[in-house]
């Protein structure tokens, strides 16, 4: 079922986030710490979008990133939990992060599609990566999703649900293992897994969200 192609027929409205927008999107039930993190992440996303690349963060995100300078050997990611694991998406692929809106359930879609939601006038498919990556009987969510990562895409209008406010992370190439070094004979997997990030005792899977979604049932012909 081509849910993605049905959803994206209307034009996506720009969602460049100013601080006031980020604040107004946070409900009273969101903690002040989460609200602050949301604003910081959306300011980072807006800075990258405004310049067309991550180089804008050199000047605009000095305080938040502790004066780290992005160069050709570094990349900035948005990191979020998926079950017991951590996953990452390039900040260039994120339009904004907002508290999860009311979701309308729709029939005859895969289990990992929670439904559709209205985010700033755009109807988005809400995707649960835990259900996508796991067998149905193995899925055990410890908490309900509270936020969504709205993805920039011209092919499909969608957002990824997550249980906590995601974090920003600057990663050097030395911290990233190519998937081909770890996952053998898995061409399809290595297409959407960009790398495995090692940081202290953490392991973070960096995915290409567009390649991943292109392989799903909801974007098939």
Structure, explained:
This protein has helices at residues 3-7, 19-24, 32-51, 57-60, 129-133, 187-192, 209-214; strands at residues 74-82, 85-90, 94-99, 113-119, 122-127, 147-151, 158-162, 167-172, 176-177, 193-199, 202-207. With 221 residues, it is an alpha+beta fold. It has a domain at 3-7 and 71-219: CheA-289, Domain 4 (OB fold (Dihydrolipoamide Acetyltransferase, E2P)). Strands 8-1-2-11-10-9 form a six-stranded mixed beta sheet. Strands 3-6-7-5-4 form a five-stranded mixed beta sheet. The radius of gyration is 17 Å and the shape is globular. Residues 8-26, 54-60 and 62-69 have low confidence and may be disordered.
Give the tags.
5-stranded mixed β-sheet, alpha+beta, 6-stranded mixed β-sheet, OB fold (Dihydrolipoamide Acetyltransferase, E2P), 221 residues
Bin the helical content.
10-25%
**Helix and strand composition category:** alpha+beta
Q: Give helix and strand order, one letter per element, not per position.
A: HHHHEEEEEHEEEEHEEH
Strand content: 25-35%
Trace the largest sheet across and list its strands.
Answer: 8-1-2-11-10-9
N-to-C CA distance: 7 Å
Number of E-type strands? 11
Number of helices: 7
CATH superfamily of the domain at 3-7 and 71-219: CheA-289, Domain 4
**Low-pLDDT windows of residues:** 8-26, 54-60, 62-69
Mean pLDDT, as a whole number? 76
Assign the CATH architecture of the domain at 3-7 and 71-219: Beta Barrel
**Main β-sheet, in a few words?**
6 strands, mixed
Tell me the CATH topology of the domain at 3-7 and 71-219: OB fold (Dihydrolipoamide Acetyltransferase, E2P)
Cα-based radius of gyration, to the nearest Å: 17 Å
User: What is the CATH class name of the domain at 3-7 and 71-219?
Assistant: Mainly Beta
Shape: globular
């Amino acid at each position: 079922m081509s849910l993605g192609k049905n959803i994206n027929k209307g034009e996506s409205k720009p969602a460049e986030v100013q601080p006031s927008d980020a604040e107004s999107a946070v409900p009273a039930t969101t903690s002040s710490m989460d609200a602050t993190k949301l604003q910081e992440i959306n300011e980072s996303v807006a800075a990258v979008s405004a310049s067309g690349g991550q180089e804008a963060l050199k000047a605009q995100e000095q305080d938040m990133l502790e004066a780290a300078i992005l160069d050709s050997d570094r990349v900035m990611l948005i990191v979020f939990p998926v079950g017991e694991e951590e996953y990452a998406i390039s900040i260039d692929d994120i339009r904004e992060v907002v508290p999860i809106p009311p979701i309308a359930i729709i029939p005859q879609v895969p289990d990992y599609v929670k439904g559709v939601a209205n985010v700033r006038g755009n109807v988005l498919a809400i995707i649960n990566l835990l259900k996508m990556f796991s067998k149905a009987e193995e899925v055990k969510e410890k908490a309900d999703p509270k936020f969504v990562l709205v993805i920039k895409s011209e092919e499909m209008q969608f957002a990824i649900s997550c249980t906590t406010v995601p974090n920003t992370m600057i990663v050097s190439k030395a911290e990233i293992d190519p998937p081909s070094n770890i996952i053998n004979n898995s061409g399809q997997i290595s297409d959407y897994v960009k790398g495995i990030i090692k940081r202290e005792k953490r392991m973070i899977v960096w995915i290409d969200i567009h390649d991943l979604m292109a392989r799903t049932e909801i974007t098939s012909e």
